[in-house]
Amino acid sequence: MPDTSTLAAADFDIDVRSGFLPPEAPLSRLSDVYEEWESKLEGAAHAGLSLYGGGPTTNFHRRASARRWRRSIREMPILPLQGVVLADIRHARRAHLVLSFLAHFYLHSQPEPTEDSLAPLAQGWNEAKDGKGKGREHDVSLEAADDAADAAQEAAGIYAATVPASLAVPWTGLSRHLDLPPILTYATTVLWNWQYKDPARGLALDNVKIRNTFSGTASEEHFYLISLLIELRGVEALELMRISLDEAFVADHLARRRIAHYLSRLVAVVHDLTTLLAKMKEACDPVTFYWGIRPWFRGGDSAPRGGQGWIYEGVDEPGQKRLLNGPSAGQSSLIHALDVFLDVDHTRLKPRGAAHSARQQPDVAHALSERDAGIKENATFMEKMQMYMPGPHRAFLTHLRNLSFDDDHETFCRLNGLEGASPSTSPPSDSASSSSDDMDVDNVPPPPSHPIRSLAIAKEVSGKPFQDDLASAYDAALISLRVLRDEHMRIAALYIISQARKQPPPEYAPLPKNFTGRAEVERVAGAQQSDAKEAPGAPKGTGGTDLVSFLKACRSNTTDALLGPLR
Ligand code: HEM
Q: A single GO molecular function, which one (predicted)?
């Protein structure tokens, strides 16, 4: 018997009480030598790090303290990974979170590099540092001279895309340990980034809060919190999937009725997820999100300076760059699991009618950027997102996807006199048993339908029609998922598309190209939108997709799975 109990097993780091969230609250602070990383993270808050060096609301002193912080990161020793950080998963996750935040703080708080205007200035600063500056007063302290040199180097873009070895080495080590890439991920910002309001009360929607943010804003907290609440509410969805699949193995009349009931409960859960998602608007300000939060998430694939990739110093060959994506809630294993369970096909390999196969697979070209993560080049966005999930969650999705009761089901039918259980003729090409007629040109059969869909398609046993509403319950679940995606598209339109058309507010306007490092306050007046490379044409998501067409495709893939008409 296929082991559906493992749908909520420790093997996959999934817990019956907390789903994809760890059952215990994440560690809130590292210990031992790794305290140093925590102090650097606290230092980031005190240094007042701002995106791209800060807009016109920052000042010389803040910029200088941010530079000093970045220098201290470069000068930090490379701490070896040993002891508790490897022995205790909570420590490993916290360490990954802290290093991810430090790296993104370090890279995205640097000012935009200037072109040639800074070369003479850099020279002057270096001379001052060496005490050689002609006509200059030689009262420049060593600290000030170092700072001046840093300012010049940063302005020249020397450090712009390099994760210093002090971060890169342990970060990549921990990433291997946790089986996810060295980049800020959904797991880092949501699954491992919360604490209890009241530890005595345990996991409840109103008893969790977010631990770390970049911007220190309520908007950023709320942004992560909504995903966290969605994961929490989704625990019941995972349970419903598990018990439905248990029944799908039995697949008799009673089991079908039970599955229909579980699907109707799943509709209610997905409805709640939609309601929670809509609550994003209650406390996450779209302007703050777009200009003041989202840029911190950028990965090496979409750096402000054109997505040149990041160098992981001390890890990779000199000159080698990694083009990893920043976090996206597209990395939520919960939503992927719902898709797999309901057999929503984002690969478009399964026959689902002419419209489905004719539509292009989204974002195939972009897949090249994921070479480093070992992702196949023609992967869809959704497949690529799985490479950013913690390894056990990715393994769970593979396990769920590969669940097939076909052989067992035939045996069961035979033993129970149910021989001839046949799929419906609508849609004819979508049944597991008729797939041989629908082979593609290479004679490779399309992947079979997932068990719940197979059962929902089946209309009769030995000429006796099923008298249940499994097919309509299955469709209702798909429609609830479509409604969730409708809401998600509204959110994306509000938080990204409309903002991309506007100028940044002053506090988020980056420094101008001709910034000399001396001005106290600069006004950019939108000369360099942080998303200038994205703003013309279709806005892109954090993960770098052509957002509108991609989200529409995901929604169509959902409704393409419907057995009946779209109501
Ligand atoms: C302000 C809030 C949000 C915005 C602006 C937003 C935006 C986006 C964008 C631009 C994408 C395209 C992929 C990419 O390039 O990253 C995406 C994908 C996705 N997002 Fe969100 N998102 C938000 C919140 C959420 C939340 C809370 C969830 C649920 C946990 C979620 C789930 C997904 C999923 C599953 C995808 C993959 C596409 C799909 O399945 O339809 N998003 N989102």
A: heme binding
